[in-house]
Design goal:
There is one protein chain. The chain has 193 residues and is mainly alpha-helical. It has two domains: 8-111, no CATH class; 113-192. It has helices spanning 14-24, 68-71, 82-88, 99-133, 136-141, 152-187; strands at 47-51, 77-81. The chain has a two-stranded antiparallel sheet with strand order 1-2. The radius of gyration is 25 Å and the shape is elongated. The mean pLDDT is 79.
């Protein structure tokens, strides 16, 4: 593996690494693997950046027509666990893991992760919108006849709301902006670059 250390095809851009990591969802991209990419100690990263078409001429699936920039680019990289990376890069397995299979894995995995993220963002946005529309005054001012309007628990709750009302009123607007940006980033992953 001569030239592996100085090979430009292995000099990944930080934005490419971030995009790969974000779209991995901390899961190996192999459809037959359920291993996380961070070890159980929550410190050790066990993911491997794998070239779909090899970085060097002695690697599997090497394409001599690619430039080093194309080899190190997002479209030619996939995140796998250490075991899956070793299996697909074993020259004896090259016919079982052609370029088309690895590209299909990557596309299917990223679609699954984007779908999960969009679902979570949508549910969170719905909850924030519901809270933003809730009229706090009505919840504390509608007292039925015959009930004790001076209930100490209600009074404490009311005072907390009144005291924190400016923060409560501002919070949904700020959160909507944050989640709108997050939602946009999930719809267009290139924003993360």
């Amino acid at each position: 593996m001569a030239g592996k250390k100085n090979n430009k095809a292995r000099q990944y851009k930080p934005s490419t690494i971030r995009r790969l990591d974000t779209l991995s969802g901390n899961e190996c991209s192999s459809p037959d693997c359920d291993k996380p990419l961070v070890a159980r100690d929550d410190k050790s990263i066990i993911s491997k950046i794998c070239h779909i078409e090899a970085a060097s001429s002695d690697g599997p699936r090497y394409n001599p027509n690619m430039t080093d920039d194309e080899r190190r680019g997002f479209n030619n990289l996939i995140l796998l666990c250490d075991e899956c990376h070793t299996i697909i890069d074993n020259k004896e397995n090259e016919n079982e893991y052609p370029v088309s299979v690895l590209k299909d894995w990557k596309e299917a995995h990223q679609s699954k992760i984007i779908q999960k993220l969009q679902t979570k963002q949508s549910l969170l946005k719905m909850a924030i919108d519901a809270i933003a529309e809730y009229d706090l005054d009505d919840s504390f001012m509608n007292v039925d006849e015959g009930s004790n309007p001076f209930n100490i628990d209600h009074k404490i709750q009311y005072n907390m709301v009144v005291r924190n009302r400016p923060l409560i009123n501002e919070s949904p607007r700020k959160n909507r902006r944050v989640f709108s940006l997050s939602h946009a980033a999930m719809a267009d992953p290139s924003i993360l670059s």
